[in-house]
Write a structure and sequence with these properties.
With 198 residues, the protein is α+β, with helices and mostly antiparallel strands. The chain has 4 helices and 10 strands. The protein has one domain: Peptide deformylase (Peptide Deformylase, Alpha-Beta Complex). It has a 5-stranded antiparallel beta sheet, sandwiched between helices. A 3-stranded mixed beta sheet has the order 1-9-10, with no helix packed on it. It binds nickel (II) ion. The site of nickel (II) ion has 5 residues, from helix 3.
């Protein structure tokens, strides 16, 4: 089921998430719904708070970018990667810069600096514990989604100056004025279908 994507301004995006203790049909359904919602919105990652849920879950799927990377000889997983209860256990000392966007902050794209790589401990969707290191594009998207389960958004990484420049546009998004081509949920407005937006 495709779920509305919660916009900047909704409290859930800023709340602490809960560790997923046990596997259950509800959790598996939530994971399926998150994947379907992410794909419908043409996203490459999504976190539970973005669909109004407080579980410590995020999904990353960069398979649509394969063409951009195969030339460079970089292998990209061809299916969504599911991260439950992820914890960063190590990160690179060196940062890299790259332009980011977010389904919860439509049409805003800004350069963000983050560590070039990281090591995570997490459970996959079969609840198998894994420890894995990531670099490149995967590290970038994983860190963006990991931030979401900590209540952090990519705009928090921007300078105060940059945020001031974006202030009006961010306020519009908080009020539900977006041109997103997917269903969103705005604070004080509720669910907004794509044809209602702008
Ligand atoms: Ni995001």
């Amino acid at each position: 089921m495709i779920l509305p994507i919660y916009l900047l301004g909704t409290e859930i995006l800023r709340e602490e998430t809960q560790v997923v203790e046990d596997d259950s049909p509800e959790i598996q359904q939530l994971i399926d719904d998150m994947i379907e919602t992410m794909h419908a919105a043409h996203g490459i990652g999504i976190a539970a708070p973005q669909v109004g849920r407080s579980e410590r879950i995020f999904i990353v799927d960069v398979s649509s970018m394969e063409e951009d990377f195969s030339e460079a000889g970089i292998e990209i997983p061809d299916q969504p990667m599911v991260f439950l209860n992820a914890e960063v256990i190590d990160e690179a000392d060196v940062d890299s810069e790259f332009e980011e966007g977010c389904l919860s902050i439509p049409d805003i794209h800004e350069i963000v600096s983050r560590p070039k790589g990281l090591t995570l401990r997490y459970h996959d969707r079969t609840f198998t514990e894994r420890e894995e290191s990531f670099g490149g594009m995967l590290a970038r998207v994983i860190q963006h989604e990991y931030d979401h389960v900590d209540g952090v958004l990519f705009i928090d990484h921007l300078s105060a100056f940059k945020r001031r420049l974006l202030k009006r546009r961010l306020q519009d998004i908080r009020e539900g004025h977006t041109e997103a081509d997917y269903t969103v949920f705005a604070k004080d407005v509720g669910v907004i279908e794509p044809e209602d937006t702008a």
